[in-house]
Amino acid sequence: MRESSARTKGKVRWSKLYSFSCLRQGTVEPAPVQQLGGPGFTRVVFCNESHLHKKKPYKYPKNSISTTKYNFVTFFPKALFEQFRRVANLYFLLAAILSVTSLAPFSPASVIAPLVFVVGISMLKEAVEDWRRFLQDLNVNSRTVKVHIGNGLFKDKAWKALSVGDVVKVNKNDYFPSDLLLISSSFEDGLCYVETMNLDGETNLKVKRCLEQTLSLDEDTEFLNFKATIRCEDPNSNLYSFVGNLEFENQTHPLGTAQVLLRDSKLRNTDYVYGVVIFSGPDTKVVRNSTRSPSKRSRIERRMDYVIYILFSMLILVSLVTSIGSVLYTTSQMTKWWYLHSEEDDPFFNPLKPVLSGILQFIRGLILFGYLIPISLYVSIEVVKVLQSMLINKDIEMYDEVTCKSVEAQTSNLNEELGQVEMILSDKTGTLTCNQMEFRKCSIAGISYGGEVNEVDLAASKRINTDLERYHFSFDGSDSSSQSFEMFEFSVPDVRTQKAVLDGVEDVENLSIGNSRISDLGKESVIRGFNFKDDRLMKKKWMNRSNVSDMTMFFRVMALCHTGIPIEDDETDKLKYEAESPEEVAFLIASQEFGFKFCRRTQSILVLKELDPSLGVEVEREYKLLNLLEFSSSRKRMSVIVSNEDGQIFLLCKGADSIIFDRLADDGKAYQQETSAHLLNYAEDGLRTLAFAYRRIEHAEYEDWSSIFTRAKTTIGPIREELLESVSEMIEKDLILLGVAAVEDKLQKGVPECIDKLAQAGLKIWLLTGDKKETAINIGFACSLLRHDMTQFHLSLSKEAESNNQEKAMKEDILQQIGKSYQVTCEESNKDAPFALVVDGKALEIAMRSDVKDQFLHLAVNCASVICCRVSPKQKALITRSVKEYTGRTILAIGDGANDVGMIQEADIGVGISGMEGMQAVMASDFSLPQFRFLERLLIVHGHWCYKRISKMILYFVYKNIVFGLTLFYYELYTNFSGEVMYDDWYMVLFNVLLTSFPVISLGVLEQDVPSDVCLQFPALYQQGQRNIYFSWIRILGWILNGVLASLAIFTLNVYTLSPAAFREGGEVADIAHLGAFSYTCVIWTVNCQIALIISHFTWIQYLFIWGSILLWYIFMYIYGALPPVYSNRAFHLFTEALGPTPMYWLITLLVLIVSLLPYFIHIVIQRLFYPMDDHVIQEMKYYRKDVTDNPMWLREQNNSKKKTHIGFSSRVDAKIRYFRGQLHQKKILIYRSVTNSPLYRSVTNSPLF
């Protein structure tokens, strides 16, 4: 049964109020029969007969969806392919195959086990991450909706069980499970409100209306015998079009977008609707706009492949040298050595067949010197990245207490990529904004209310240490804004607050409590939707002002010109409101606070409780609603025509300021100049503005117009819209301007500060939104992506090109606009000027075509800020892919709705906001955040750290494996290519597994060049990752060279120290076991002490792992040597009897350690003394506590490190300072001229005394 509130609202039959085609199906003609059934229009849906869709040709997919990368069948082949895309894994697969032959110098288990372990761990991680996606899909597919099962009964079914043709019932605030045809709603007129934030990012509600022929199907039992057929277009990705017919009761009725409810949009302000499933699962428009989950690899990992190529080339080279040397030495010397001739033929070594033996030696060398290729690097990186992700997830600074959510790394593959981001593509609604509109300011009769000095003005004032004067002098010396004393008085900020700001008082909020002219941008409001503070209007004080009549009419327009419905609030005595757009709700709340409460409405009556200034009391008045001319994107205005209790007829209008100003009467422009100045200020604050105006209409004029309007409304055909437009123009003229109202699409907490910090870190930010251009520009100003002195290029199709609808003309139009804009950027005078590019969806569609795309992107990347509006989800993904391919930069995409999934998956890094628009974006993302502001810490702190950690870790891995692997090669040369292994098998196994693994993991997890607070104070440090300084080819080759030198020092010093004489008192000389143990000890000491020189931030964990690893080597030697010879082989009692008691063993270790580390030590000394990097300077300052003992020096370095940017709060402050200084300079000139032109000055200067 319907609730009473729904019945009350249902009484308003909106079809009789609205004038245009968005709600009247009569203007839509049936689709031609030859079109339906033709290519692209073959869909046939049998309503309430879903069983007919279980077999061909009408069999359509089920309603379940999947965002996973794998399934049970494809997991192993696809995951194995992912693993063996890594070059090193391919090599070790070959080595593992060869290890089962007699060629291998090691046992097969020692080669196969590490490969299985590494690949297995990586595949397990992939499986866990995809399982998480599967569970999220399962959660969505398991949602329930009421489905007609026959006999007029509805039963809950899972979304995944829905079929095409099913009749479903969706309740208020629920999502639509598939694309539906609207049959009826709880409103008697078949109307419903739909929120489409997940699809296009728009916050305003869309109005949908069913066909009049199906209005009677508004109860469960009505569907007992319901049968109909839908013939429509095939599944496609276009969100804004639908073509089809409904065959019902032997009649054909046209269908359009007004009757279609799309999956993932939400039912709002309507108790329930009935609908028929048209498209299900993968056929729905939102899924058609999505892309499959891609496999992403970081730039460092991709470059690491090339490093592996280099190491593999070294491996081939040394194996080739070994092979050639073996062949030459065998042919020239070994044939004469009788003791090399075995009685049995050895298939792997025959001195009489040197070429064959050389080939086999080459293969043996590939396995023997395989330690040059660090297989354990991959598993170590996997472990490190998982631990890094855990630290990111547990960062208390990224925990949101409001939502009780924290950051979550959905994948650990891209941690280091966070430190190399160069461009951010961001959604607007729900990502930057809170989906909440607030009334902030207004300008009535040329006077601005609600605060004039914003945070930018205050910051600029404090920096230049001068008074703020909000009035502006004209060049002729007159004060253009002080039209009256009242206007002048209230346009200057409170002197006491100015003085506090200029004196450095931080608690400005407390000082500004009594000052109504200070803006509270960013402060929380007490009343939801109303964040206005000005004592001149609040508490009925507006009734005492001189322009009370204008104020009364302003508030009356605000309270009457809308489509809202009042709802009683059980918690307070005030009303709540529901309307198509959030701006209307904010205006209704504001009018209620000012004393104009909109109480109720019927089909033709609007009731207000309003303050009567003449009586000083609240009175209830009824206004008869004669006509409603609704808002549309082309009209950009809305009007209502009402008559009051005295019979006077008024047209009340609100709309875009440019539209309203063009329709003002000559005597209605009294406040236009002052209002225009206030509009500029509001726009710079990022506020949405609407101008309010009215006119009084004579009865005769209205009767004439009404008859013409009625004829236009009843016209059927394509000209109906044009007729209505022209007739509306006839009445919406000769308006009298009242003022403007400004609302804020409230930003999330910390968004401007976050964007400012990211800009200083060198990131460019693009805004991609489905909202209209004006809204996007307002948000651009609010979050400091735009500023007042920025040259804006607006790329949009001209009306002629759009009306012709010819591709060639539209393309030429866009190319011409791009060419003109690019020419402006290339002019010498504009080299350092900031530019912004604003593109709408239709122009973007043309601009992204192959023959225009390069020119468009060339212009876009040269602009400081780019805003794309009215873009579809697929366009977002296309922009992301195109920018990534064109620029080659690392792209991060961030959004919170299903409409952002495409760009999140296309970007190098996808970030989902776990906000109010469901979990689709989070499910498809690589990282999820509860709020946009946490992106600052995620990138500038964790991204910076992870980039440096992974870079250092890889370079150190390459270094230590070269040090270890090349000692084997040197021994091969030393022994005339004998193929003998210098080290014991267990030494080889334990090198990467135990003795050097823990220090490198601690480096990758805990290393910090500077603390987190310093990262945020010096965001320019982030640019080291963008420039890839720590993983450049110079550094890679430098570390390879360092490894070569260290290995050479270790081997030569050991060999040539031990060879000439005995190393023990008894005269024993060193054999292979001694030389191997000597060299291995030096390797362990060298690589572990080298990592100690790399680490900047020590904790007890690093100390334990580094020195513990060295100690562990000695413990192992002792235990291994204590085993029986059958197990310990040549190492039996080696440490306790041979090495430990010998002083030479310890002296050689110390000598080799010093010589091996000397090249790197000399390098870092020279670099820090003569060529220090930014982090080196900051480390020195922190070490000497300059941030505490010499704070001015610390602040000076902090300011010097800031990157000059064109976007962000800081850049707006800098621009404002330049503006203030220009104003002050102009005032000085005016003062000087006024003084020098005065008669007194002339008489004094002309005096003989001078």
TrEMBL record:
What cofactor does this chain's UniProt record say it requires?
Mg(2+)
Q: Which residues form the P-type ATPase N-terminal domain?
A: 45-111
What CDD domains does the record tag this protein with?
P-type_ATPase_APLT_Dnf-like (cd02073)
GO terms classed as biological process: phospholipid translocation
Return the broad EC class. translocase
Q: Which reaction does it catalyse?
A: ATP + H2O + phospholipidSide 1 = ADP + phosphate + phospholipidSide 2
Please list the residue ranges annotated as the P-type ATPase C-terminal domain.
922-1172
Which keywords annotate this record?
Answer: ATP-binding, Magnesium, Membrane, Metal-binding, Nucleotide-binding, Translocase, Transmembrane, Transmembrane helix
> Which Enzyme Commission number(s) are listed?
7.6.2.1
Looking up Gene3D superfamilies in the UniProt record yields: Calcium-transporting ATPase, cytoplasmic domain N, Calcium-transporting ATPase, cytoplasmic transduction domain A, HAD superfamily/HAD-like
**Which positions are catalytic residues?**
D427
Specify the protein's topology with respect to the membrane: Multi-pass membrane protein
Q: Which GO terms describe its molecular function?
A: ATP binding; ATP hydrolysis activity; ATPase-coupled intramembrane lipid transporter activity; magnesium ion binding
Q: Name a GO CC annotation attached to this entry.
A: plasma membrane
> Known InterPro entries for this protein?
ATPase_P-typ_cyto_dom_N, ATPase_P-typ_P_site, ATPase_P-typ_TM_dom_sf, ATPase_P-typ_transduc_dom_A_sf, HAD-like_sf, HAD_sf, P-type_ATPase_IV, P-type_ATPase_N
Per UniProt, ATP binds at D427, K428, T429, E584, F631, K654, R688, T769, G770, D771, R870, K876, N899, D900
What the record says about family reads: Belongs to the cation transport ATPase (P-type) (TC 3.A.3) family. Type IV subfamily.
Q: What is this protein called?
A: Phospholipid-transporting ATPase
Protein's organism: Tetracentron sinense (Spur-leaf)
